Amino acid sequence: MAKIYITAAITGAIHTPTLSEHLPVTEQEIIEQAIGAHEAGAAVVHIHGRDPNTGQPSVDKKVIGNILSGIRKHCNVIICLTTGAGLGMSLEERVSGVPLFKPEIASCNAGSFNFYLGPLARHKKMSSPKHSWEVPYLENTEDFVFSNTFKGLRHYVRIMYENGSLPEFEVYEVGMINNLAYLRDEGTIKGKIYIQFVMGIMGGIPSTVDNLVFMRKTADELLGRDGYIWSCAAAGRAQLPLVSAALAMGGNARVGLEDNLYLKPGVLAKTSAEQVTAIRSIAEIMGHELADSNEVRAILNLKGSDKVAF
Predict the structure, then answer these.
(1) Closest CA relative to residue 189, chosen from 210, 219, 214, 160
(2) Distance CA 40, CA 275 (A)
(3) Bridge partners of 167?
(4) pLDDT tier, 179 (very low <50, low <70, confident <90, very high otherwise)
(5) What's the fold here for domain 6-307?
């Protein structure tokens, strides 16, 4: 069996501090959780920044730079820098870290959709939020479209290629695979396409094995089985079951507190490393070997950590 690899999404821009005391928000917390995830077996970490005082999603250059350099100082993990950043940020804010830090990988959302987080605002913990921004941030998504137009996608991809960063295309709905096929056929996207199927976001495709099979089948038909490499992430309680199904189908795995705050029903995960350990155990039971970061660099044809700007 081919080796598989694990990505850990460390903090994201979806969950708020009130929902879990374990969600990392300071620079040092994010750095430590990224290092811990790597030590547990993650070859890639997906990084967002947060305001260290409030936990609000942030693209502050100093914060992001400190996180990236802090991780790199302690380990050789591949760092995927977000261009999702925070809901409601402008296109330029979202992509600003790519030319500045020139990461090996940068996320690139593959289409527009309704990104609704309102149900989180009604969680029992949110009756006493830690910060005033949390409930409005979640509730305001009732009228929010996560905009990733063709013009925007071309802009993101061009900037990523100019800075030697591989686009990781976040696919939340099956029509986004068609977007990628179109952009490849017109020459905007070059080479083998790297896809992260992100399932279970309200407004995107639900987290079911049938839907994952459908997404994979559609990608095979539109991109060619040898035309892409893929991984899978799933929101909330579907995380481990669906990601396990992805491994059984020949994909790779993404876990982490960005996607799911729990380790098992009713038990909060203390770190993303706990989730990495869980999916690693499942993978090994299936007979998979884990690729390390340098092996994944070869698989994805990355430029190497010596060519980043942090």
Answers:
(1) 160
(2) 9
(3) 106
(4) very high
(5) TIM Barrel (3.20.20)
